[in-house]
Design a protein that fits this description.
The protein is an alpha+beta fold. The protein folds into two domains: 164 residues, BirA Bifunctional Protein, domain 2 (2-Layer Sandwich); 111 residues, no CATH class. It contains ten helices and eight strands. The C terminus is likely disordered.
């Protein structure tokens, strides 16, 4: 299994590419199509392209100038390539199997974005592969994608999980790093317990303490400081937390973004927690019954729990 991901400056050109014939065409250029986010397969390339209807002015407003001074990202290109051991080109159901993997993955990591996937086996090796082009703007909120939606590690993990769920045995291949040698696995290895201590668990515990004592978002950073945690980066979706105090000096300075924990530390979830804390405090002062907090801060969304358990 090979996965590939990059951004594109011209989403319409990227959508047209997998649908136009090559100079020497071996197999059908378009064997099957899967769509999401409101895109409809009309069978006509140009009409499909026109459905990616977010104007460039909006994209430019959300994604500012890149390093070269140009307005850059309009979309994300993803490629799913399957080995013969995973989905054989001679399998009569190869199109359905490949598009099922793509649909399951995209519905997990880009369910609120426009996207289209084109299944083919017209390369030199004749292997089954799918080209996917995705917009970088959410349909419902017109906000840019971020976090796990743009993470290659999450993309890979979700794809492998979908394949496993569908009974497709993963073929890592010679060029693919094993799980034990991958960069993500090494990061996870260092976060595991050493002599009974895990800096990730320690950092999570400190964030939990700070969040439980905060009743307003403006006071959260001060509560983190009291708990021995600093913030290295603030984004609208979530923060990056740094372990500033520890019984193990060698782990001081270790940091992790909000989406690396198995608890939802995104700012929307934290703000919900702060509001509930405030209601509890006010209820206690007024002698009123406490609000129901059974569904507050119990953890991430179901799909996030699946991703982080991989």
């Amino acid at each position: 299994m090979h996965t590939w991901m990059k951004s594109t400056r011209n989403i319409r050109r990227s959508v047209r590419y997998p649908m136009q014939d090559k100079a020497v065409q071996r197999e059908a250029r378009v064997a099957g199509v899967a769509c999401g986010g409101g895109i409809i397969d009309t069978g006509d390339r140009d009409s499909i392209v026109k459905q990616f209807n977010y104007p460039l002015s909006l994209t430019n407003r959300l994604y500012r100038k890149g390093f070269d001074g140009r307005f850059t990202i309009q979309g994300i290109i993803r490629t799913f390539s399957f080995s013969e051991k995973e989905i054989s080109p001679s399998d009569k159901d190869w199109v359905e199997k490949a598009l099922a993997v793509v649909t399951g993955t995209m519905n997990n990591i880009a369910k609120d974005c426009q996207w289209i996937g084109v299944a083919q086996k017209d390369g030199k090796a004749g292997l089954v592969h799918v080209h996917v082009v995705q917009s970088v703007i959410h349909n419902s909120t017109l906000t840019p994608v971020s976090g796990r939606e743009t993470s290659y590690d999450i993309f890979r993990k979700v794809t492998e999980a979908v394949m496993e769920k569908q009974g497709i045995t993963l073929d890592s291949g010679r060029r693919r790093k094993t799980d034990d040698n991958s960069e993500a696995a090494q990061r996870h290895k260092h976060a595991k317990e050493v002599d009974g201590y895990s800096w990730m668990d320690d950092l999570k515990r400190r964030i939990e303490i700070a969040a439980s004592q905060t009743t307003a978002s403006g006071a959260f950073e001060e509560e983190l400081r009291k708990a021995g945690v600093t913030v290295s980066r603030k984004a609208r979706r979530g923060w990056t937390f740094v372990l500033a105090d520890s019984s193990r000096p060698e782990w001081i300075g270790k940091k992790a973004s909000y989406d690396r924990f198995d608890t939802d530390f995104s700012m929307p979830a934290l703000n919900k927690r702060f509001k509930t804390n405030y209601q509890i405090v006010m209820s206690q002062r007024a002698g009123r019954p406490l609000p129901d907090i059974s569904n507050v801060f119990n953890g991430p969304a179901e799909e996030d729990q699946q991703d982080r358990s991989l």
